[in-house]
């Protein structure tokens, strides 16, 4: 009788261990990176009918379509927002001249990465900028975020010099937006970083090295000083998923320990005294 009970118990234990193993396998599988909507997973090398020139042409068409959508939003909703906020963001423009405001060609820009990144190398972003004009004169700049087909105005500045730079981008330097400082910077050919607008000038007085800028930016990114914008959408940052990965790893380890413990119990020799009970 004891043998039958013990055999039945082992059957139930084996079923439970199998279930734990399956659950752990699914959890482990969830740790494997999968392709995001903005990233195509590598495929096996196969012959293709699409020539490289055709692929580049498709990318160019996609960029042209996005620029068209961005421009349409900018000249309607973006311009309406500009005029509605002009009294507070552009104090040198009186109410009688607000109707003369217009926007120039938008430009998708690079942005500095999230605080804590190993490099300050600018990364592709969803931030855009456009010069602001009054009649034909460039008098400022608008910064906005373009995400999932929708625009959000981030910054409106009455800064003629910066607006002119957006209207005529330099060839030997790179214009970069910093969501932490909420300001604009210029990276020259030798790697030095200079402020382009008032917000940037409040943090960096002039041209500085990358090390100095990194130190200043780190201080600006401190919780007590932080005035920046979320970069989850702007740069595709996925660091927020680290905690879920930790929990998955813990679940997998627990499943492995239970599985090993169950196998040890199933393989232990039977005690002859149990049969005689």
Task: Walk me through the structure.
The chain has 277 residues and is of the alpha+beta class. Helices cover 45% and strands 19% of the residues. Strands 1, 2, 3, 4, 5, 6, 7 and 8 form an eight-stranded mixed sheet that branches. Helix 1 packs antiparallel against helix 7 (242-267). It is globular and about 60 Å long. Residues 22-55 and 230-249 have low confidence and may be disordered.
Write a concise keyword list for the protein shown above.
277 residues, alpha+beta, eight-stranded mixed beta sheet, 45% helix
Shape: globular
* Topology, number of strands: 8
Residues in β-strands, percent: 15-25%
Q: Helix- and strand-based class?
A: alpha+beta
Helical amount: 40-55%
Helix run count: 8
Describe the sheet with the most strands: 8 strands, mixed
- Please state the CA-atom Rg, rounded to the nearest Å: 29 Å
